[in-house]
Design brief:
Distance between the termini: 14 Å
Strand content: 15-25%
Shape: globular
Number of strands: 5
Number of helices: 2
Structural class: alpha+beta
Length: about 120
């Protein structure tokens, strides 16, 4: 089974995944990266203007696919006032990403379900 690596990157920073995950296909790796983005974006500071991506690489270090993060913004609160970000959302983003990656290494979960196409 191939091993894929999920590096978090922006124009200013790069968080290298040195562990990776064994997944059956690039399609599985893509779905895994989408899950990483969906779970990580909830931890990010909404005021962060950096455009993050997850870069999927193979065992040789070749870049296979890039998954972009959605834009993160605060929605205006009632009566036109902006909400203050929650204290847990103002952490240093790279530290959050590293901690999240470490927690994923402890409990990897394959994304493929029954009948999933093994090729992408």
């Amino acid at each position: 089974m191939p091993r894929f690596y999920f590096h978090f990157a922006s124009a200013q920073r790069f968080v290298y995944d040195d562990h990776g995950a064994e997944l059956p296909s690039l399609r599985s790796a893509h779905m895994h990266a989408v899950g990483l983005v969906a779970r990580t974006v909830r931890l990010m500071d909404p005021a962060d203007k950096e455009r993050w991506t997850v870069q999927i690489a193979d065992e040789n270090g070749d870049l296979l696919l890039t998954v972009m993060f959605p834009a993160v913004r605060l929605r205006p609160a009632a009566f036109g006032r902006e909400r203050e970000p929650a204290p847990h959302l103002t952490q240093n983003t790279p530290a959050v990403l590293r901690a999240y990656a470490a927690s994923l290494r402890e409990s990897p979960a394959p994304i493929d379900g029954p009948g999933a196409d093994p090729t992408y």
